Amino acid sequence: MAESSQLSAGQKTLKRDPYEILGVPKTATADQIKSAYRKLALKFHPDKNDSPEATESFKEVATAYAILSDPDKKRQYDAHGYDGVDMEAMEMELDLSSLGTVNTMFAALFSKLGVPIKTAVAPSILEAALSGQLPAVTLPWGVPIQAKVEKQHANYYKLVVTQEHSDAGVVVRVTSHAQSKFKLLLFDPDPQVGGYNLVAQEDSVKAGKVTAAGFYFLNFKLHRLDPTVNPLHVAKDPEAALFKRLDGLQPAEVTRLDAGEHIFAVYGDNFFKSATYSIEALVVDKIAEVKDKVENIERILLDKRNDLKAFETVYRDAVAKYAEVTQKYAVEKKQVDELLGLRDKIYAEFSSEVLPQPFTEEVEDEDASPSAEKKRKKRWWGVKSLSSKQ
Q1: What are the residue ranges spanned by the domains of the chain?
Q2: Residue 205 in contact with residue 159, Cβ under 8 Å?
Q3: What CATH class has 1-122?
Q4: What's the mean per-residue pLDDT of the chain?
Q5: Does the keyword Hydrolase apply (predicted)?
Q6: Domain boundaries 132-283, corresponding CATH code
Q7: pLDDT tens for each residue of 187-197
Q8: CB 97 within 8 A of CB 152
Q9: Which range is most confident: 75-89, 118-132, 330-344, 376-390?
């Protein structure tokens, strides 16, 4: 795709420190990194700037974000710089609103084949938010709303949160029985510009027979589970499907929803058609038991992630050792076979006997044909008859 080619070129020319590019410190949180990226991506987006310099800056910002938003790549960069990052395996965000029909078809095809395609919120949505022009409808508590949203567009919802709601905990969840792709967005007011900033987003994931995304403001440390297992990488390293599966557990950007008005949006992320969905807001005190279960399972999963990291080292060392001893086994077996064969030849030299030749003495053919037997009989009776005449 043309977009992919442009991104590859940006990766090759990238030399500056990604922290410097995004203007964030090395201690920046995932939320700060994402916020800085969105502002710069909107500033340099090709739809707003036709200059080659802006295009290069946009590629640079996108690549820096691809490194710092991925925990593994961020850790590799912090330890070894660009030499430690596999730039060829970099996963970039695509703005589907800027792709042509052909490139969108290719992206959809790759997605069907299992290739993870990361998509970005269209700049028009972010611009509308900054201008404050968000036509939001009220989202009632405990009453699901069924709706449809066009691709690369958003439906906005206003949720009024009281202090009681905030203290109890809030869940905003979206599901699609049509298994549509969508993003759930959260906007907060920006006093400096008078509009709204996108502060958090969750991409829909398949959950049984539906796709779903949700924000869980439960007033304690939560983790989202980002997809980290690339089917193409798993084809080369099947064990990665297990060992990398929990790496996507990352701290949630927002764990508490303060009292006041909040704007949520459902963004259509299908490649070609609109997305159908249901959105609902719940107060957690009505499901306190579920809240305790979530906190418990999160703790268990984090411990399991640490266990897997330790076990991966042991496992891969054992696999490498097994491959080594298997290869040595094959070498040893070949050498033993050759030595035993040589031993047999050496022992054979102690014998002075000449090996017997195949036995070739003529014998009467027991399977001789009947005609041959008749000829022999005639010759015998002929001799007998002559002697009798004499």
Answers
A1: 1-122, 132-283
A2: no
A3: mainly alpha
A4: 78
A5: no
A6: 2.60.120.380
A7: 988 877 788 88
A8: yes
A9: 330-344
